Amino acid sequence: EWPVLVSVVCSPPQNYPLYIRSVPTENELKFHYTVHTSLDVVDEKISAMGKALVDQRELYLGLLYPTEDYKVYGYVTNSKVKFVMVVDSSNTALRDNEIRSMFRKLHNSYTDIMCNPFYNPGDRIHSR
Amino acid sequence: MEGLTLSEAEQRYYCDLFSYCDTESTKKVASNGRVLELFRAAQLPNDVVMQIMELCGATRLGYFGRSQFYIALKLVAVAQSGLPLRVESLNTVKDLPLPRFVVSKNEQESRHTALYSSDADNPASYSGVIPPPPGRIQVKKGSVSHDTVQQRTSTDQQESTSPVVSPQQSPPTSPHTWRKHNRHPSGGNNERPLAGPGPFWAPFSEAQPGSSTSSDPIWSGHSPPPHQENWVSFADTPPTSALLAMHPASVQDQTTVRTVASATTTNEIRRQSSSYDDPWKITDEQRQYYVNQFKTIQPDLNGFIPGSAAKEFFTKSKLPILELSHIWELSDFDKDGALTLDEFCAAFHLVVARKNGYDLPEKLPESLMPKLIDLEDSTEVGEQTGEVGYSSSPAEAPPSKSPSMPSLNQTWPELNQSSEQWETFSERSSSSQTLTQFDSNIAPADPDTAIVHPVPIRMTPSKIHMQEMELKRTGSDHANPTSPLLVKPPDLPEENKISSSVKFTAGNTVNGYSSSDSYTSDPEQIGSTVTRQRSHSGTSPDNTAPPPPPPRPHPSHSRSSSLDMNRSFSVTPGQQQAGVVAYPPAVPPRPQPSQGAGPHVHRPVDAEGLIGHTSTSPQQIPEQPNFADFSQFEAFAVSGVNKEEEDEIETHSEVLQVEKPSDSASSLRAAKADGRVEDKAPANVPTSAGKGTTPLAPPPKPIRRRLKSEDELRPEAEEHTQKTGVIAAVLASQPSIPRSVGKDKKAIQASIRRNKETNTVLARLNSELQQQLKDVLEERISLEVQLEQLRPFSHL
């Protein structure tokens, strides 16, 4: 099991998290902070890229603190919806492809939610 | 049938009832079962029922057409009113109360419980099973809505009827709430004089209309709630009058609402009647209702309802957005943001269920999965829905959600209450089958389609054998039953060759299975061969024993046919050579060292004595291919035999040679033969036997001669001289040899030959001795080992 995996969905434009899920621990607060900081980096990348907006993966080694030792991955959809995933570095089993697939699934789930007319964009996402 | 005039209320009511009974959605014939059920619910004595049936003509026709049904209903009403059953009474009796069909007598809670517990029809299904009822309800709703669209009254009637008929099955909550709800509206519309004991119908229908009217605007998407309300009312013996009264009022613009209401009633009925296998099953009526609702939004039944429209529609149900969202997630099967008819029905069904207090399932129940079939699908295959993942309390929905429906509001609390009550019951989770499962089911991995590669049979040897056999077959007409092999692998077109076997393997995958099919590449060939072999053995009669295992075939069944061919060829010849093999080795290496004149010289020495041995020589001669030498030797022999030195040479050739010169032509031969014999015999004996003093004597003579020659060999020096002399003599004897200079040469040559022969003989001796030495040494070693082994014992 992953010691730490946090998935965050942040929607534009304010980029506030719509959904945070951490497995298995619940140190969400810590990850909130991490996510917020990582969002800035994501924005940087988005602005830098220009054409290719869909940045599937961004290995955020920059935030690899010696103590915390985790990686942050970012994923941006064409609509500027950002997915951030924080993974514990100790989990070396997670390969890049796996991260990508996870993001893809996340994206799919998000689109499913969007398809739901009862969902108001901007609402908190509830997942079971 | 006589003309039947029905009042509006009656019309509606009867229509609803008919729809209810119209289980097959034929709209023409009411199912007898339902009808009978209905009549039973009318609480009329059987004979009266029979009479009614007769009067209406159903017995005549054998079925209940609409008219018959109506008449029957009317007669029921008549009978219930205590009036004699008369055909005339159909139209003469005015103000006849609507026929009352007793459903259950339980009051609200008790009703609920009764419904649940006393549900004769579905005792098991109800007890604690909330889901089923909703299904029913919805079914009814559907059907009701179906009719209500056109006939409010009918729907109301249906609703009223349905509840009446299926009181037992109506979900406790819904009837509960319905009742209350109906009461309210019915209270307002209590013009219905109906006041029967168990006249659910009336109240229900009235209540529904009332509620539906009020909630009509809201209800457009709210079909469930009214339905539920209706249901509730059913359960409780709502004032039928009220219900009926409501009809007219509700008739006005109770479009969807009414339908909803009726639908619910019908649903209830449905529920009652249908078995409770699948709580989420959508009954026909329900489905009809849903379809009608769908039409209001999207006329094209094959089209989609956009998400926004669906949202509006379902928002009217006053369910919390969260629940609606959940419902959407469940029902939007293809996740396209739009609802097809099936999806819509599923969503509607879920809403109704939720309204009735049934918790939404975690996964879409199987019965709700969109069927890509026609719309008329009646109850889908049900599966039990356990649900409960979503236990949003019904309390959430109600009160706050029906502002515009005061009655509904009132009912909501009831609903909530009922739902609360029922929450205990609930829940069997929805069927495990979920959308995802459904999807997954679509494309099940079909292992069969996969190419089957059974483990190749270990038939390597045979395979190889087979291959070889094949090759043989191809290559030659061996006994190997290649043909059968060929026949066997059907996919193998023929290949006798390995290549074919290769194909065979390729085809194997296609073939489903044949012994060889499973073979993989390597085994392929083998397999093919094997199969071939098998088939071969099995099929080919010619197959003499499995092709004699050719020499261990090459492990690498390289498909190179060439290789195989080589192998086969090698094999074939091998086999062939089996018998032939003997040949090669057969040739005894009879080295024919240069037939030095020496031996021949010897011969000539003895040739004289050998002349008489012509008989023997020929015997030995054939063994030695040195006949040619014989002639020479004979010449030599004649010239003289001083080739004793050669005797040591154990080669037969030498003997031959020796003999040759020693004898004249024939004698030489004989001598040679003898000499050979002698040589052979003493071949192993280094030492010469010392015979041969009588060169010309028969066998012994040659031997002697040989030995003699051997002896003569020793004193080589002398022999040399003798040889030279002999050689010279031989040379001289040989006419071909010029005697003058040739003698010397020949003598030298002879001596050289002799020396060579001696050398070879000595070499041989040496080798033999060494071998003996080795043996001896080995023996010694073994003895020493034994000694060592024995020593410890000795010490002991």
Structure description:
Chain A: It is found in: Cytoplasm, Perinuclear region. Chain A: Keywords: ER-Golgi transport, Transport. Chain A: InterPro entries: Longin-like_dom_sf (IPR011012), Sedlin (IPR006722), TRAPPC2L (IPR044760). The complex is a heterodimer of chains A (128) and B (796). Chain A has a five-stranded antiparallel beta sheet with strand order 2-1-5-4-3, sandwiched between helices. Chain A has helices spanning 28-49, 96-115, and strands spanning 4-11, 16-24, 58-60, 70-76, 82-88. By secondary structure, chain A is an alpha+beta fold. The model of chain A is unreliable at 57-67 (pLDDT under 50). By secondary structure, chain B is an all-alpha fold. Helices cover 62% and strands 1% of the residues of chain B. Chain B has 36 helices and four strands. Chain B has a two-stranded antiparallel ribbon with strand order 1-2. Chain B is rod-shaped, with a radius of gyration of 58 Å. Chain B starts with 7 loop residues before the first helix and ends with a helix. At the A-B interface, helix 2 of A face helix 17 and helix 18 of B.
